[in-house]
Amino acid sequence: MPFAGIDIGSTMTKVVITDEQEKILASHIGPTGAEHRHLALKVMDETIKKAGLSFDALDFIVATGYGRINVPFADKQITEITCHARGIRFLFPTARTIIDIGGQDSKGIKLDADGKVSNFVMNDKCAAGTGRFLEVISETLGIALTDMGALALSADGFVQISNMCTVFAEHEVTSRLAEGAGVAEIVAGLHEAIASRVVNMTRHLGIEKDVVVTGGGAKNQGLVKAIEGKVGFAVFTPPEPFITGALGAALVGKDFYDRGIRPAKERKKEEVTFFS
Amino acid sequence: MEQAQQAKTTAVKGTDTAREVRALVKNIYRSAHEAKANGQKVAYMMVASQYDEILRAMDVVPLPTENYAGLCAAKRDMDRFLLKAEADGYSQVLCSYARIGLGFDSLRKDLGHIPEGSPDGGMPVPDMMLGSSAVCDPRFKWYQAASRYLEVPTYGIDVVAPPPQDDLNAVRDYYIQYQRDQLKGLIGFLEAQTGKKMDPDRLWEAIRLGDKAWQLWYDIDRLRVAIPCPMPSQDHFSIMVAGHYYSGTQIAVDFYQKLYDEVKYKVDHKIGVIPDEKHRILYGGGLPPWHTLWIFNYFESFGAVFVIENVYRGYDPVEVPSHVKDPVDFLAWRAFLRFTRYHEKARARSGNPIVEKLLDMIADYKIDGVVFHACRSCRATTIGQTHMKSELGKYSDLPMMQLVSDMVDLRDYSEAQWKAQIGAFIEALEARGK
Amino acid sequence: MTVMQAIDRLYNERGVRARELRADGHKIIGYFCCFVPDEILAAFDLVPYRIQGSQSEPIDEADALLEPMACPFARSCFNLALKDRYDFLDGFVAPHSCDTIERMYHIWHSNKPTSFDHLINVPHMLGPSSDAFFRNELKYFISRLEDFTGKKLDESKLRDAIRLYNRRRALLREVYDLRRENPPRVSGTEITKLLVAGMGIPAAEHIGLVSAFIDEVKKRPRPAADGLPRIFLWGNEIDDIAFVSLVEECGAHVVMDDLCTGSRFFWQDVSETGDPLEALARRYLCTHCPRSLKPQAGNRREDLENRFGYIREFADGWKAAGAIFYIVRYCDTCELEGPDLKEYLTDLKLPVLMIEDDYSTSTIGQLRTRIQAFLEMIM
């Protein structure tokens, strides 16, 4: 019995298909599509193909992520908060705190002993503390985004970046450079600043072990290290942090199915539209 | 307020007396710790609440929490407190003084002791918290929130001022009556807390000292009309400590006497803050950027000196009618007269008492330009600046500039942006001078 | 026109009725917040108009005169005034409810004066001397209205107005009683419209509308149980349906509130006996706005109970499964009150979602994930 979870982010779409034993049958990541954002369905099709299934064979489809609202072929829309929680808890049964650093936003999620979401917090309409912040600064510095984490780790200490406003921080980076600060130390400072921002946000919830960092930010070792420095102990990262939301969505679908909930409406195999 | 850092960065000559303020600041917190040890009552309090002399007369040791926030910022040790308050659920746009205070209280509670290395030894747990509605809303609401961290008796009083359009003859009596009732309520509370009756003679004595210090302070500010400027705004942000935190004590009187003598000497001998004074600036309003006070020196490097300011001022002296025989009545009357000092003038012209005060300053101090500081988290001193600028523009063609950051939260400050703005402002001043 | 159509018209075309009344020779007095007694204006045959902002219109012109770190509700109101959208006001009254409103009054007064501008000072402290002071402020307000209208206050008309407004209050409470049903036959979105519609028309007309609305709702069939969570809203100004609709769209019933555009302005009656001014002073001063300070009562727990006990009654009585705080950004007193109330409600095992918003429909969609996740959490 296959269940699919589709996590439609602003840039990437992630799909995971599991069976009733919660075993991952297939997963796939593809672009959402920069212009028309119509490629989500394609990612879905690719994953189904990988799993060797047909669309109609899926017993439940849950859509999550920023683009979850208008998915004509999904049976339910569930937020990425609930899905991340489910996915992470599946991967790390002892997880109590999740820090998700995405491209557009970041979140802190608190789980109770049973793995249920007991509280959460999201950053506020601002690029600070998200991947976007690093992206902007990496452009300013002319360094590939993927190299930023390693560069931060290579630094000898860090330069304090006090402004978390992206525009202000750009100014600050430029003036620190002019003052002769090292690029690696500046980059390390930026990682410190983001870590400080997300960890502090998560402190609203009370940070409890185990802590799992997920989302694109979990791929950045420099950032993970900085977060560990702030929380004061080692944190976990999933092997594939991009797909925890989609995995959770598939599992949430299975949970619905187990509770006797069946797809309510006809699925339409149509493109996902972002804006209603 | 924070003289040490300024002294390090300063290239100019302020007053020597202002350098003694550092000790006064340290003494505020040391006294509070000593008082606690001696069983004397210590109260969190807010400046300009019109109750300073009452606290002195009742031996309640004032612990000014806003001042502490400014001190932390001047020491650049504010982030841990701000972040703690934010982690506790307080918004990043909430008054940053309150955030520092709440964050400090929260940390002290979590740790069970004063956070390590807190500026000037930190604040001890007070015996009570005394809020007031003078100046802004957070000043009474903050202490209510702080009871989350310290369960001590908390009391708030209203401090009321009529709007400038009101007919003072129609409202005077009941405004004063209410102010008196509010102060009496506070006295009742303090009597219960201290177990002592308030002694009217001691209150009169505190009032006498308070008024004397403030008269001297006023006289000092009048001396500052001199050219070249004998005492810059940076000094004001230090020397206000005596007037606001030592009000009603001999310490304040002695301090201002000494400062008066020094400023008088500088005026008589034409000793200015900077050797070549080109532009005289009015600090038009907004709380000072405690995090970056050296920015004033940056202005001075262009020959621009801040000669007078419209924040944390002492009140101009007022004449309480002689029929007022009770010290609490006196305080109520004095508050009313202080707050309505520019009302008549406002009614006659701009309608706005602050605009009138600024126009007076522009004329008396021969001002060349006006700078405001908008603080992102201070509604009370920021809202209205833009409007004031436009109102002032109706009566004056001086260059005016509004710098934006916060009084203590460095995250709202951009040095690059400020320097660019200041550069353009100086150019405007120079263009005018030609 | 059905009652819902009439409500929609008033809701969508703000000020439409006030303009008609003005054309008929009535004088319209605009005011802010919940601290200006409508009864006094009505006793002078003036039409009270509660000033609203617009969450769907960007704030542009006001930025040149009012700092962007002021409450966006206040900025929006002032923005509309600058664009002459309040040109039907003959007078403008602001209570000193908070720093922002008080300061905005002066800026408004200087840029858009009307023939009757007035600021009522409202004590922040509560107690007998505050009541006495506020009574005097109301007396002074009356004397200014007497100058403005050229007539003396007729005390019997004031008593009539008190009774009239109490009648409206009773009817609004009746509407809120209908929200106790599960699922309710009336949505939070409809309630918002009904309340906003009433802010710009005379009480007698609103009474007609509310009565008809109650009749209409009572005729609706009872819907089947749907298991959706019931939500209590706390915060300040919600004079647009966008937010409430979003919450309901995400799968919830908004059933009760403590908002200045909701229960806060009508929950308590004005006493109809004794000195009417004293009754008004007492009633309006105890309006539940975080800008007022209740004297500390006992230890922390007792004090919270003293401050928020009425909210517990709301949450219990309306069987709320969760509370959402909607705080218009830069409201210092709400920002300080929110964490206290959250602590109190969390102790009562009522989950809380605290939202700080810009009072703008253009960004409200960004709240969807937060609201939906909250509903998923409490289900």
Structural description of this entry:
- The complex is a heterotrimer of chains A (about 280), B (about 425) and C (about 375).
- Chain A is built from eight helices and nine strands.
- Chain A is α/β, with parallel strands linked by helices.
- Chain A folds into two domains: about 5-85 and about 245-260, ATPase, nucleotide binding domain (Nucleotidyltransferase, domain 5); about 95-235, ATPase, nucleotide binding domain (Nucleotidyltransferase, domain 5, 2-Layer Sandwich).
- In chain A, α2 crosses α8 and α3 (about 130-140) packs parallel to α5.
- Chain B is of the alpha/beta class and about 425 residues long.
- In chain B, α3 (about 50-55) links the parallel β1 and β2.
- In chain B, about 60% of the residues are buried.
- Chain C folds into two domains: about 5-155, Rossmann fold (3-Layer(aba) Sandwich); about 155-380, Rossmann fold, CATH 3.40.50.11900.
- In chain C, the strands form two sheets. A four-stranded parallel beta sheet of chain C has the order 2-1-3-4, sandwiched between helices.
- Chain C is globular.
- Chain C starts with a helix and ends with a helix.
- Chains B and C meet through α7, β4, α8, α16 and α17 of B and α5, β4, α6 and α14 of C.
What's the helix and strand layout?
The complex is a heterotrimer of chains A (276), B (434) and C (379).
Chain A: E1 3-8, E2 12-18, E3 24-31, H1 40-51, E4 60-64, E5 76-77, H2 80-91, E6 97-101, E7 106-111, E8 117-122, H3 131-141, H4 148-154, H5 166-178, H6 183-203, E9 211-214, H7 221-231, H8 244-258
Parallel strand pairs in A: 1-4, 4-5, 6-9
Antiparallel strand pairs in A: 1-2, 2-3, 6-7, 7-8
Helix pairs in contact in A: 2-8, 3-5, 4-6, 4-7, 6-7
Chain B: H1 3-9, H2 21-38, E1 42-45, H3 52-57, E2 61-64, H4 65-74, H5 79-87, H6 96-111, E3 128-132, H7 138-146, E4 154-157, H8 168-194, H9 200-223, H10 233-245, H11 250-268, E5 279-285, H12 295-300, E6 304-309, H13 327-339, H14 343-348, H15 353-364, E7 369-375, H16 379-382, H17 385-395, E8 400-405, H18 415-433
Parallel strand pairs in B: 1-2, 1-3, 3-4, 5-6, 5-7, 7-8
Chain C: H1 3-12, H2 16-23, E1 27-31, H3 38-43, E2 46-50, H4 72-82, E3 91-95, H5 99-111, E4 116-120, H6 128-149, H7 155-178, H8 188-198, H9 203-219, E5 230-235, H10 242-249, E6 253-258, H11 263-266, H12 276-285, H13 300-317, E7 322-328, H14 332-347, E8 352-357, H15 361-364, H16 368-378
Parallel strand pairs in C: 1-2, 1-3, 3-4, 5-6, 5-7, 7-8
